[in-house]
Amino acid sequence: MIKVKVWAAAAALIWTQTVFAEVLDVTIHYVGPTEGSAWLGVQQGISEANLQGEFLGQTYTIKQVKADGVAGLENVSAVLVAGDVSTIENAASSLSDIPVFNLSADDDALRAACLPNLLNIPASQQMKQDASKQWLAKNPESTAHIQGWHEDFKKFAASQLNSRFTKSHGTIMDDTAWSGWAAVKMISDTVARTQSDDGTKILDYLKNDITFDGQKGAGATFRETGQLRQLVLVVENNKIVAEAPLRGVKGGLDSLGLLSCKK
Fold this sequence. Notes:
Elements: H1 2-19, E1 24-31, H2 37-53, E2 58-64, E3 79-81, H3 85-94, E4 100-102, H4 108-112, E5 118-120, H5 125-138, E6 145-147, H6 158-169, H7 175-194, H8 199-208, E7 232-236, E8 239-244
Parallel strand pairs: 1-2, 1-3, 3-4, 4-5
Antiparallel strand pairs: 6-7, 7-8
Helix pairs in contact: 2-7, 7-8
């Protein structure tokens, strides 16, 4: 028994030394305004990533870069973009093997383009349309609309995230703020698991291995279109009346939006 305890203690020491052998200073680049929802969401993500990083020997910094400066970046871990379709596409095309996160655009064209390094966090237009159809099939008189996030969402520890965000920023978390937070959370979770800040390795993990819990339920993954699978909220008169996909709908999360790239 004593030998087992000694071995366990030694193994724990080796693991700790391995984890902290190399301190990772991770810089995430950001294209977009430094005001508004996307920026606040990113800031919330960075704050929480650094709290987690204290135990893992990792620090996170966000650095703003202009859209025309993305192509000149070197040693990039990830780029977050809050902008129009053209800005997002150009950033992704400039860094073909580095993860580029779309934080703001719901355009279906971005998903249909199937850019290999573009990761779309917001629910797409088609996802919202599909969710609306599911709801209206059972509630044809409803005037509800679809949101990716809501300040009153409580399940999956969403209420705690909403509280943290409002306490930090004095405003509610909306769809775009959630996207900014979620992107940083994915990056920090990936760095923690891979022990690497290499953009190519991060992209590979995000596309193939991550199952993300963004306070919207476990198991969110990326389709080959770059779209994040996720539930969305049916909102009427500013109250959540349902979650989509609706219970019993065939396909679950894959009943919402474009499933795959057209060959």
